[in-house]
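User: For my dataset I need records formatted as: sequence, then structure tokens, nothing else. Please produce one.
Assistant:
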Amino acid sequence: MFDSLSDKLQAAFEGLRGQGKLTEKDVERAAREIRLALLEADVNYKVVKEFVDKVKTRALGAEVLQSLTPAQQFVKIVNEELTALMGSASTKLTFSPRPPTVIMVVGLQGSGKTTACGKLAKFLLGEGKSPALVAADVYRPAAIDQLKTLGAQVGVPVYDEGTTSDPVDIAKRGVEWARTKGRDVLIIDTAGRLHIDAKLMDEVARMRSTVKPHNILLVLDAMTGQDAVNVALQFQEKVQFDGVILTKMDGDARGGAALSVRAVTGKPIKFASTGEKLDGFEYFHPDRVASRILGMGDVLTLIEKVERTIDEKKARELEQKLRKSSFTLEDFLEQIQQVRRLGSLSSLLGMIPGLPANKLKGLQVDDRAFDRIQAIIYSMTPEERRHPDIINGSRRRRIAAGSGSDLHAVNQLLNQFKQVQKMMKQLGSGRVPKNPLQMFRNPS
């Protein structure tokens, strides 16, 4: 979502690079370009003014003007101020010593609130918690069914009483239910509206005073820009939430909400939600986001994704196979599927230092290449997957027809697999990397 802003900021820095010394005029020009870039990104005007003033004050001091690498020092200052703008460090949830910890999720309709509840439940499962969900949105059609479906997908129970009970009573009884079930975290999906109104705020306020949640999280749609910040201000006035879940972070938005909400409300962004898949949910790290905006990559998040996604047991099994030179197309398929669980190739490339967004523009990263490879391998018999050397001309034609591809695609995959097998044999004598990204750099 920060591609456009990233391009403009890096363009502002470009005029500073290569200069042995910066003048006050150079700093003024760069500051003006940064101001325009942030305003175009829909960042709050007051936030922009304060941010640029801080950058200029520091940049006009000795740490830049007298530095041997002034351009790098200037970028460092912008990076530090961007991080401070978004909260300096990630903030975690508050957990009660006496379970269940109650998390109340609030927000407007269309912000992705119910989906965020399901994603949060899955995230907490991965953190070793035993969450449960409460369906307290009795107004939106199918909201309860949606939450129950999400609960089933994630593997957590959902408490609901249909659409006839008072939402506050549902939430209260849900807390007791979670306690009897031994669940240590309870996530309450509250009702939303298309806009802020007195009834919505009254209901949320009553629920807060009744169930006394340990965390109140406001869900904001990053695509709505300054409107998201206005919504946050109104909820802050009436409800006093503890943090924000920013959804649709992978959308074609300008990023204003992410850069403004903490400065305007004083409340941190705790989580970022991306994509439709339930695992597209993670802690919001201001320093990492700032790094990505400035084209510096985000290797820490990439490492965490790999650690969460890669199955250590399967990695050890693969290592043994490589040592015995028995790497098959079935293993190849398994590695591809593990890479896919990390996310889109475009998002992964954006996390690699040295590959800024402006350098990646125009680069065609086709995730559908994985689909084509999977279709071809699934069209093979188990014997063919384990022993691809037996795949002759007639078998190749059959596989091509069965996978909806052509003979060239089948031949290309088999040739690539032979190359990978050769590399695997070389790796077999040493330590095998557990990160599949190191093994399959070009799936197409």
